[in-house]
Amino acid sequence: MLTQERHEEICRIVNDKKAVTVTELVKLLGSSESTIRRDLNYLHDKGKIKKVHGGATSLINNYTTREDTVDEKALLHMEEKEKIGRYAASLIEPGELIYIDAGTTTGCLVSNIKDKDCIYVTNGISHAKLLGQMGCRVFVIPGTIRGCTEAIIGGEANDYLMRYNFTKGFFGVNGISLENGLTTPDPDEARTKTAAMSRCKQCYVLADSSKFRIVTAVTFGQPEDARIITTTLEEKQFKLKTEIVEVDQYDLYSHI
């Protein structure tokens, strides 16, 4: 198969399946892994597809208002989320006042927390439960529970957050784009994220590779408002906006 034909076939497969792994493309096209990776880099640079860790996703539909449930999200990108959570947990220092946003990637942060000599505040129901079981001092913000994300949100939550001066805050995100910033599908959840971020001395956004170049309904911040922790990122444009921590470049266990 000629190079141009292979490129066209890769684009067709990616757009049909919406997401595909390098291994799948190797099997479907009968090409070597190095060839497929080179093709994906080329097509990504040309703006034909989005290269992500271990494969590629389509750019045809990068806008969504739909949100998966917590249980559905927990099954996606599990290895990436665990790496991100482990690294993020290593940034917490004794005596800090930490805010932890609801979400599955921030949930991986919680499960990796070692420092109990901190005060934790969260709007995540499952996060609060786990932190309590771990013997941490944890406060849950008041408000309304949003069922699909298990996040506490609303005006009461936002007002409550205004009393705090957090040293660090860790946030989940549904989409990150240069044009629309940090986005999430729900307006009320977006307002709670914005309120919490405004009270943090340092904000971190925890995002697996599938979140980049995705746009959802409501913007709650800009990339430059936070340091972004991910596994690996090919898009150099994002690195011009803010600090991107690529945890695949680190020995994670050296930070614990």
TrEMBL record:
Source domain of life: Bacteria
Matching InterPro entries: Carb_Metab_HTH_regulators, DeoR-like_C, DeoR_HTH, NagB/RpiA_transferase-like, Tscrpt_reg_HTH_DeoR_CS, WH-like_DNA-bd_sf, WH_DNA-bd_sf
GO terms for MF: DNA binding; DNA-binding transcription factor activity
Keyword Transcription: yes
Record's keyword annotation contains DNA-binding: yes
Stated name of the protein: DeoR/GlpR transcriptional regulator
Segment forming the signal sequence: none
Keywords from the named record: DNA-binding, Transcription, Transcription regulation
SUPFAM superfamilies: NagB/RpiA/CoA transferase-like, Winged helix' DNA-binding domain
Domain HTH deoR-type: 3-58
